[in-house]
């Protein structure tokens, strides 16, 4: 199935990516984590998105699952982008941002939480393709803390998108 032509600015994301990074926040100890992200499409003008992470020990072995999120990435005119993400912890986020070459910068426009979700107020994400690898940094405002670094990772493409 052909990729919708509107997706050309973000088509570089398509595929399965795996790698590792570092997480930390005032409410937790810094740690290494592993991650898998899958960007797909169904021929319509949006990308599907799934991410899962797990805690890694000092040798790089999986210790336990961390977070998971799923959503949709929609390109808009003039290389603007909208991203809708849902988390099983009761949080839904809508990000808006811009695509500049192989760099995507996103900021939360809306955050909705269920009554049982932890306090989460805002996010800022930066994605970029660097030497063929997907790099990203994620800042968040949660649990009474201002927007600050939470996670960063480097992911390698390990597979193409399977329709």
UniProtKB/TrEMBL annotation:
Keywords: Heme, Iron, Isomerase, Metal-binding. Binds 1 heme b group per subunit, that coordinates a highly solvent-exposed Fe(III) atom. Its cofactor is heme b. Pathway: Nitrogen metabolism. A motif (GXWXGXG) lies at residues 15-21. Pfam families: THAP4_heme-bd. Its EC number is 5.99.-.-. InterPro entries: Calycin, Nb(III)_bact/plant, Nitrobindin, THAP4-like_heme-bd. Heme b binds at residues 27, 118, 150. Residues 6-157 form the THAP4-like heme-binding domain. It catalyses: peroxynitrite = nitrate. It is an enzyme of class 5 (isomerase). Forms a 10-stranded antiparallel beta-barrel structure able to accommodate a hydrophobic ligand in its interior. In fact, this fold hosts the heme group, which is located in a wide surface cleft. Heme-binding protein able to scavenge peroxynitrite and to protect free L-tyrosine against peroxynitrite-mediated nitration, by acting as a peroxynitrite isomerase that converts peroxynitrite to nitrate. Therefore, this protein likely plays a role in peroxynitrite sensing and in the detoxification of reactive nitrogen and oxygen species (RNS and ROS, respectively). Is able to bind nitric oxide (NO) in vitro, but may act as a sensor of peroxynitrite levels in vivo. Belongs to the nitrobindin family. This is Peroxynitrite isomerase. The lineage of its organism: Bacteria, Bacillati, Actinomycetota, Actinomycetes, Streptosporangiales.
